[in-house]
C-alpha cells in the first residue's frame, strides 16, 4: 500500500466518482514531494467569495458567513499544526499517552502498516498531506465540495476529489478503514446529520473500521466584551440558517444512537486564547481576529452597524484579544468509534 492510491479505488467506485465530480483529480498522481513544497507551491483555490473551504467541508465561515477566504487559506495551515501540537498528549483512563496529535482513534500501528483513509471536507488538504508524509504505507483520499486542495504536486499515496457528501460518496460500501472529519459544525443541519451524513459515512466504513470527528465548542469561556458580542451574533446568524451549531456537544450521542456503531469515546481540550496561552494562544487570537474580518459583512449587517462603528469596534476587539489580561478559553472535542460487524448486535 501507499504507492499509488488510485489503484485502491475499484473500477466501480471510479466510475461513480467521475459521475459525481467532473473536476476531480484525473491526472496520474505525482511522485512524493515534501509537505512544505506542497503547501507553498500548489494549494489552489476557486475564485470568488465562499468558493473554497478551510479545513472543513462547506466551512461555516466561508460558506455560511460569506467569507473572503483567499486570505484565510494559509492561516488554516498554521491552525492545523497548532491543533496537532495541542492534541499530541491525549488523556485516556487517567494516564497520559503520547499520540500523533492528528487523530485520537487507536490506529497508530495500523496506519504504519497500511490502511485506507478518507478525509471528509479536506479543505486545502493540510491534514491529509501531513498524515501521508508520516504514514507512507497508508493511502489517503480527501473530498471537498470545492477544489481548494493540491491538484498537481502531492504525495503518491494521496488523492483528492470534488464531490458533495450529501449527494452520496463516490465509493463502494465498506471501503475505508478510517473516516475522518473536522470542523463541520457550521456545514450541515441537524436533519442532514441524522438522515444523510452519518449514514453515508458509515456506509463507506469497513466493519471494524473507525470514524472520528473533531469540532470546536460553540461556547467560549470568559470571552472578552467584544468577543462576546460577535460570538453571540455569529451564533444567531448560523441558527437562522439552520446550521447545527451545537454539534460538538451532541457528537457522542449521535454516534452512540446509531445501530451500526460501538460505544463512542469523547475527548476534549481547552485552549487558552491570547498572550497568556503562549504561541498557541496568539494563534487562537489571530484566528478569531481573521474570522471576524472574514465574516464582517454579515456581522455588520446583522448588528446594523455603520462602517465607522465597525472600525471602532474592530480596534477594541483586536486590543482585547491581545491584552495580557485576557483569560478567554475555547474548547475542541474529538469523538471516535468503530463500525460494528454486521453480525454484531447493538
From TrEMBL:
Can you tell which superkingdom this protein's organism belongs to?
Answer: Eukaryota
For region Disordered, the annotated ranges are: 1-53
GO molecular function (one): methyltransferase activity
Q: Where's the Methyltransferase domain? A: 117-209
Stretches with biased composition (Low complexity): 21-53
CDD domains per the UniProt record, alphabetical: AdoMet_MTases (cd02440)
Q: What is this protein called?
A: 978_t:CDS:1
Native organism is Paraglomus occultum
Amino acid at each position: 500500500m501507499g504507492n499509488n492510491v488510485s489503484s485502491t479505488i475499484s473500477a466501480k467506485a471510479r466510475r461513480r466518482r467521475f459521475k459525481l465530480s467532473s473536476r476531480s483529480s484525473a491526472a496520474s498522481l505525482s511522485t512524493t514531494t515534501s509537505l512544505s513544497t506542497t503547501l507553498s507551491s500548489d494549494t489552489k483555490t476557486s475564485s470568488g467569495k465562499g468558493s473554497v473551504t478551510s479545513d472543513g467541508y462547506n466551512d461555516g465561515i466561508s460558506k455560511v458567513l460569506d467569507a473572503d477566504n483567499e486570505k484565510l487559506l494559509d492561516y488554516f495551515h498554521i491552525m492545523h499544526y497548532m491543533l496537532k501540537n495541542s492534541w499530541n498528549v491525549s488523556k485516556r483512563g487517567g494516564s497520559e499517552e503520547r499520540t500523533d496529535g492528528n487523530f485520537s482513534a487507536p490506529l497508530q500501528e495500523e496506519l504504519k502498516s497500511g490502511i485506507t483513509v478518507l478525509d471528509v471536507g479536506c479543505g486545502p488538504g493540510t491534514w491529509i498531506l501531513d498524515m501521508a508524509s508520516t504514514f507512507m504505507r497508508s493511502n489517503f483520499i480527501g473530498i471537498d465540495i470545492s477544489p481548494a486542495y493540491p491538484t498537481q504536486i502531492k504525495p503518491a499515496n494521496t488523492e483528492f476529489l470534488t464531490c458533495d457528501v450529501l449527494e452520496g460518496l463516490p465509493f463502494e460500501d465498506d471501503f475505508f478503514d478510517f473516516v475522518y472529519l473536522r470542523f463541520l459544525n457550521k456545514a450541515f443541519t441537524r436533519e442532514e446529520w441524522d438522515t444523510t451524513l452519518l449514514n453515508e459515512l458509515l456506509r463507506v466504513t469497513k466493519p471494524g473500521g473507525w470514524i472520528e470527528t473533531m469540532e470546536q465548542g460553540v461556547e467560549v469561556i470568559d470571552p472578552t466584551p467584544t468577543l462576546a458580542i460577535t460570538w453571540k451574533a455569529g451564533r444567531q446568524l448560523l441558527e437562522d440558517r439552520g446550521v447545527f451549531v451545537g454539534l460538538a456537544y451532541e457528537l457522542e450521542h449521535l454516534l452512540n444512537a446509531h445501530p451500526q456503531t460501538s460505544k463512542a469515546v469523547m475527548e476534549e481540550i481547552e485552549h487558552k486564547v491570547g498572550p497568556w496561552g503562549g504561541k498557541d494562544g496568539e494563534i487562537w487570537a489571530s484566528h478569531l481576529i481573521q474570522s471576524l474580518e472574514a465574516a464582517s459583512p454579515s456581522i455588520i449587517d446583522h448588528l446594523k452597524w455603520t462602517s465607522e462603528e465597525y472600525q471602532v469596534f474592530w480596534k477594541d476587539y483586536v486590543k482585547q484579544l491581545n491584552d495580557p489580561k485576557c483569560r478567554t478559553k475555547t474548547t475542541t472535542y474529538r469523538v471516535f468509534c468503530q463500525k460494528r460487524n454486521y453480525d454484531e448486535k447493538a
